[in-house]
């Protein structure tokens, strides 16, 4: 658990890199791989700038990522697996890397997509040259070592392998980096990182991820959104929500606006009511219906009022009782509460 917590903090670290420590980590990683240290080390303000710098390198030599990162990781994994056995390795992974894998992998994939979007997809022209440029960028990204975003597997080997110490030092002090024979390119860490309780990129009033050079990603509960889209959330109306053609963006609008508020201001009609509550349905173009149950807490608030709750339920729900039962993991026939609270 201590290693998971340590590397979770590394993965989420923001602020200026410790350049001296990161560069020493790069040299150690090269030495451990049996390679001469790179002649030059170049710093970039973000993974996007790093990818651009890599494409512009003059005589960098071949990529040595396999020797520096892939081969030692695979060999150390095999060693620890053989030492502990399948069950022992599974247990180690479950309390270290597995706790970080989903969030760090999703963040790295989102950064890759953002780099491609900002460098080539933002201004597509359909030409062969444009397609070639996108291919070059994707290849450059494959050569990257993910630094702090390799935290999941580094956590699994922390305290078990000195061979990965160089990689761990870079990850602890910097962001992504590219190892080539003659040169290494290292990136700064983010300046800002905003996530929700599930670890997804999330910010409702600005970029969710910002690097020192201005490269930024915008997201709402993990879903990529355009920068100008967030500015519009403060002035939403039911009509604007209905006319949004992108179904995913429309869902974000509904979440931000509030389903209950949307129902109230859209003159929606209830489709069913019984002793458990009221079932409401919002039909949306090119998307599944939004179905919600309105329930009233039978226990009064300190001021004597009874609070109303809105429960989102599956779109095929037909009765209020069926919807309330679903929230408890039950079929409607089995839902017979002794006392409402």
Mind summarizing the main beta sheet? 4 strands, antiparallel
Series of secondary-structure elements, N-terminal to C-terminal: HHEHHHHHHEEEEEEEHHHHEEEEH
DSSP helical segment count = 13
* First-residue to last-residue Cα separation: 38 Å
Structural class: alpha+beta
- What portion of residues belong to β-strands? 5-15%
User: How many domains comprise the coordinates?
Assistant: 2
Which range best describes the helical content: under 10%, 10-25%, 25-40%, 40-55%, 55-70% or over 70%?
Answer: 40-55%
Total strands: 12
Question: Features of this protein?
Answer:
single chain, 341 residues, alpha+beta, 2 domains, four-stranded antiparallel β-sheet, three-stranded mixed β-sheet
Give a written overview of the molecule.
The protein is α+β, with helices and mostly antiparallel strands. The protein has two domains: 2-189, no CATH class; 238-334, no CATH class. It has helices at residues 2-11, 19-32, 47-55, 65-95, 98-121, 128-142, 151-157, 165-173, 227-232, 238-243, 247-257, 259-265, 320-327; strands at residues 40-44, 177-179, 183-187, 192-193, 209-210, 216-217, 219-220, 223-224, 270-274, 277-282, 290-296, 308-313. The strands form four sheets. The protein has a four-stranded antiparallel β-sheet with strand order 9-10-11-12, sandwiched between helices. Strand 2 and strand 3 form a beta hairpin. Helix 2 runs antiparallel to helix 8 (165-173), helix 3 (47-55) crosses helix 6 and helix 5 (98-121) runs antiparallel to helix 6 (128-142). The longest helix has 31 residues, at 65-95.
